[in-house]
Inverse folding.
């Protein structure tokens, strides 16, 4: 019987980066390694960087290989986790790639893979704002918008593993085109590129703003600039965030009306600007979500921030390690 | 041990009617009684009509009282089923009414109550278009719009029992006011009164239509007239249904994107016009719900029609009767 505290390695793979960390059962990160990844490189090259980040994280943790029970990898795309396959990922530009086996072989540890949006939801459930509730939704706002729903303490996958896609519900029927082919999706109006577009359009119309200088120094303007300008009290930037909050509120009101979660947890880089878009978001939810008996569903930014996906991958690896250990305990102790 | 086939009485109570029927385990209606109910009468009066309808149904079935195992009652409103209470119902204008106990006493049979939208979903699950699927959604379109979601073969209630309220998601942010206090809800654009309003507005603008005569004969015009006119090939009526289909498609695309059901089953009186609004509804869903891997979630009118709620109440009563019987079987047979 193994009695020492089990540790795992959690890995978060994105289009531009990979993060790996040794994680203990309380969700503390013990050794961390971060790497940038050049976009659209072949899978073998990306997986080699991932493996080297995992080795570096282990080294930095000061723990030996024998202390690690498994590896969990979160990545964007449509996966077949039981087979270790990435069927399709637009962000990585991969199709039918075996991910689990090469990692497992290189590191000599049982490995599991899961979608990074699901990983984010599991991260909140295990170590974040979802620890004490059974029904909640995560909305991750970055370059795109992802959503994960936890029902009865488990990921709700829907009939074909695509439930919770809050980024692709229509909030403005005649709104701008979305990458998915629809128009007026929440993502097309409130993800990073949409916020940047709003700023660029306002500047083109001759609005006075700190953003004018920022745009002159760094083309093209990004959502990050709109955040920085708002922090400096720029009126145009503040107005843009208020508008983003209204669209987000409309989408989240729909999520609440259909799914009735106890909490809505906002993650992703854009959610760092919660102080600027939160008030108009909440006002819009109060105005639109009228049939939920509760006066107000809690809406809050994630306490885990960008670490939610890594922590959820680690939590999944921990859970699988426990299952294996229970299965191998002798029947009579 | 009871060996004969168990029967129950299913009851559907609405704002204007009550239907009761003896139902066998295959979902066949053996005796039926229908009564109209004057609107907004005191609970005791309504419950007396309900009890008398149940007695008539039993009499018409030709079965004796001893053949009946229980009663299931579906009604609109916020209920506390385990206590037999109706906390609040706008349609019945009731508040804090004990429903179960008076029925149970008057008829001498174990009685259970449930929300009629939940009852509709259970009806489809037990005897209708949901028999062979685990994840599906029901959308009931009548005077209002109700929605019920079945996840893993069970009603999904959400955190405060108000999940699936598809009638109150915003489909036109600047649309007409809804009874719920929001504006542009699906219900405010596609339920019976909204369809009637669209017709009345078109006629006011001088549109040529069979509806002109119908309106002259029976004021105010109702959704039913628009259905009859469409059946006779009236161009205005057909155009109205096409528009209704587009709004419904927008709302159902959102439902599919968030909940990812295998099927969407349309019930309620308005769904009788499916042949007229179905094509534009499906086109809009195809256009808007782009991130669901399946080419097309099935969308179909309910095979149970107006009987779904009564059948779901009966199925719930049957399930409860089975639980009681298992609990009372001697441990050694």
């Amino acid at each position: 019987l193994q009695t020492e505290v089990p540790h795992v390695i959690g890995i978060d793979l994105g289009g531009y980066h990979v993060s790996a960390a040794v994680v203990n059962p309380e969700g503390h990160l013990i050794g961390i390694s971060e790497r940038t990844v050049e976009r659209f490189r072949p899978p073998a090259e990306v997986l080699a960087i991932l493996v080297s980040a995992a080795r570096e994280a282990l080294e930095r943790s000061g723990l030996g290989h024998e202390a690690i029970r498994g590896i969990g990898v979160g990545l964007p795309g449509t996966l077949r986790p039981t087979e270790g396959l990435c069927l399709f990922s637009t962000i990585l530009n991969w199709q039918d790639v075996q991910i689990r086996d090469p990692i497992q072989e290189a590191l000599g540890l049982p490995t599991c893979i899961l979608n990074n949006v699901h990983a984010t939801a599991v991260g909140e459930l295990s170590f974040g704002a979802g620890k004490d509730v059974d029904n909640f939704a995560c909305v991750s706002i970055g370059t795109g918008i992802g959503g994960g729903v936890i029902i009865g303490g488990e990921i709700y996958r829907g009939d074909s593993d695509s439930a919770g896609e809050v980024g692709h519900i229509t909030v403005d029927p005649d709104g701008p085109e979305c990458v998915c082919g629809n128009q007026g999706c929440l993502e097309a109006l409130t993800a990073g590129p949409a916020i940047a577009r709003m700023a660029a359009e306002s500047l083109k119309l001759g609005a006075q703003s700190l953003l004018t200088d920022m745009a002159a120094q760094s083309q093209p303007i990004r959502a990050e600039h709109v955040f920085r300008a708002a922090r400096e009290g720029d009126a145009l930037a503040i107005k843009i965030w208020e508008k983003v909050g209204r669209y987000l509120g409309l989408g989240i009101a729909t999520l609440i009306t259909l799914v009735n979660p106890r909490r809505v947890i906002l993650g992703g880089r854009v959610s760092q600007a919660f102080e600027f878009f939160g008030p108009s978001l909440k006002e819009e939810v109060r105005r639109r979500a009228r049939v939920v008996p509760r006066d107000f569903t809690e809406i809050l930014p994630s306490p885990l921030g960008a670490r939610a996906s890594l922590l959820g991958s680690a939590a999944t690896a921990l859970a699988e390690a426990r299952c294996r250990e229970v299965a191998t305990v002798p029947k009579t102790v």
In short: DSSP finds ten helices and 13 strands in chain B. The mean pLDDT of chain B is 93. The longest helix of chain B spans residues 235-259. Chain B touches chain A through 47 residues (CB under 8 Å).
